Amino acid sequence: MRDLEIIKQILKKYDLMLPVLPREQRKIYRSKRRALAVILGENEKSTLMTTAAVRFYYIMRNMGMPVTLVSGARAAVFASVITLMFFAGGSVLLLQNYFYRQGVIAVNELSQNGIIAASGDIRINRGGTEIVSPGAPYMIMAGDEIITGEFSALLQFDNGAIVKIFKKSSVLVVSLGSHYQIDLRTGSIITRIPQLAEGTGYAIHTPDSVVSVKGTEFGVQYENGKTKVYVTKGTVSVKYLPDGTEYDVAAGSSSEVNGDKKSFPLTEEETLLMKGFSDLQYVESISTKSTVELQSISDKLSASDAVKSGERQSKKMTLEDMKLKYGKLDEVILYSGKKYTGVILSRGEVYKILTTGGVVSVPAKEVKGSGIIQ
Amino acid sequence: MKLKEKLSDPGTDRFVENYDSFYSIIFNSIYSKVSNYHDAEDICQEVFIRYYNKMDEVENPRKWLFGCLRLVVFDYYKMKQKKDIDVDELFDDIGMGYVNGFRDSRMMIKQVIEDICNESGDRDASLFELVGVYNYSFVQASKQLNLNYKQARYRYGVFAERVTEKLKEKGISNIEDLL
Question: Which residues of B touch A5 (CB under 8 A)?
Fold first, then answer.
């Protein structure tokens, strides 16, 4: 130890020492890494790979690993793949998040007679371009105008709201995000929204009113120049625009929005209508749902339409009623052991069975067997 | 030669090993002469490019690299048309011109170190030069030479012992006498 110091002093005394500052030592080390990549990358088309291989070679070497340039290159490729996957995954998540913030529309294409038809009567007006009969699920964006024909449509938003647009209605989705605004131009909608987070909002505008809520289930109708609001859960705040009158409509009440602030108990038809809507639930990860699952949503939407038009009994018939109407009763047994009793409305890839609880759809591959029981 | 083949070539591994051992001392040697970081970087790179291309013909990399150095410095300044730089002057060892009582001792010490450097492994020689001549810390020197701290200290100690022994052979029984 002492000899080491003496040798240093001797080198210094005899002017054989050429000290390099630590800062410069580090610079030289960096230069070393750069230069190796240049030397090896000479006459190479792609120096990027060489640079990456050299960089990883030194990183791994500094970690005390016994490496060669080839292992540095392998590590560089591996890191590139991981980075690429990371960015690709991140991009997918961002895109998914972007699109998921948009609404998803499930189009009711099933007529009340159970005949599957491409309705073609729902239209989306997007920036002057008309999209006719989009399949479900279909993304909607702020600025879209949704016009229904002979069938209703179902929307949901990423804040957990679910909206049923009745037939022959026109709705403009003004804004999505933290503050949702839907303009009901004509027709009726029913909406259910969970308790909203602080700083967010949800409002339905009609030409003469604004209905805003924080978390409730309610319907809005705008027909013949009049807005009507009916509420089943929570309380909604209503503002009549012509004179600025504001008042609340409580659960179990309906009100024709005008300056007199009057509310009435829900009628039987309104109660039934809202009851049909209660079967329609928010669907998580709708883009991953199978055709059968989407069809099931469409069936429920159909059933809710049937309730409104007074055909509730035909959709939820007793077994005796079915036997009287169809002259038979079927029994369908699934591989899972589940059994449906009712009337098979259609076969194919998906069985449609009319049961006492309504129409159910079952994939054919799940059906073990069926037969007439009476 | 494709990049993959180039990287997996044993010759490339040998080059990288020598490059790791000599880059810092070659750079410092150039830097101490040209006193310009960027010029030193360019010249050093050129030295190693020439070495890479001639590697198979080189028997003693250390000698070859130091020999090539002067030629590259000359070519570099010729190419840059810096006529005011006298390359011969750059390589003159000013210390050797001293005419005083230390001149002989200095020459002897330098010769001893040079001999041991030639006899020792490339990495040991570079380690001694980095720590002893260029005043690198053991941590920094071990990083440059792909050694760990303990290895660097041990190898430096062995080299220093050999210096002491060699000086004894030259009649310096106690190295402290040189101070």
Answer: none
End-to-end Cα, chain A, rounded Å: 106
H or E stretch at A219: strand A216-223
Q: Apex CA A162: angle with CA A159 and CA A163, to 5°?
A: 130
Cα Dmax for chain B: 59
Residue pair B128/B157 in contact by the 8 Å Cβ criterion: no
Give the integer Cα–Cα distance in Å for A350 and A353.
10
Say if residues A280 and A162 touch (Cβ distance below 8 Å).
Answer: yes
* Distance between CA atoms of residues A361 and A364, nearest Å: 9
> Is A19 near chain B, with CB under 8 Å?
yes
> Is any Cβ of chain A less than 8 angstroms from the Cβ of B27?
yes
Ramachandran region of residue A123, left (φ > 0), alpha (ψ -120 to 50) or beta?
beta
| Residue contact B3–A24, C-beta within 8 A | no
* Cross-strand partners of A229: A220, A255
Angle at the Cα of A237 (from A231 to A238), degrees rounded to 5?
A: 90
Size of chain B in residues:
179
Rounded to two decimals, the ipTM of the complex is 0.81
CA-nearest of A138, A137, A184 to A165 is: A184
Instruction: Give the closest-approach CA distance of A2 to chain B in angstroms.
Output: 10
The one-letter amino acid code at A36 reads L
Other beta carbons less than 10 A from residue B151's beta carbon: 15
Residue type at A51 in one-letter notation: T
Q: CA A304 to CA A298: how far, in whole Å?
A: 10
pTM, entire model:
0.50
Nearest CA in chain B to A34: B45
Q: Which residues contact A186 (CB under 8 A, 6 or more apart)?
A: A168, A169, A170, A222, A223
Rounded (10°) angle between helices A47-62 and A69-100: 100
| Six-digit token string for B73 | 């410095």
Q: Residue A102's CB: how many other CB atoms inside 10 A? A: 18
Residue pLDDT tens, chain A, 374 long: 567 778 888 888 887 888 888 888 888 888 888 888 888 877 666 678 888 888 888 888 888 788 888 888 888 889 989 999 999 998 888 776 555 444 455 544 332 222 222 344 778 888 888 877 766 667 777 888 888 887 778 888 777 788 888 888 899 988 887 788 899 998 988 888 888 777 888 899 999 889 888 668 888 888 888 898 988 888 888 988 888 888 888 888 888 888 788 888 888 777 777 777 777 777 776 666 666 776 777 777 766 666 554 444 445 678 888 888 788 888 898 888 888 888 888 787 778 888 887 778 888 888 888 888 76
Determine the residue among B1, B2, B3, B12 to mutate to test chain A binding: the one whose Cβ has the most chain A Cβ atoms within 10 Å. B3
**Nearest to residue A204, comparing CAs of A148, A244, A161?**
A161
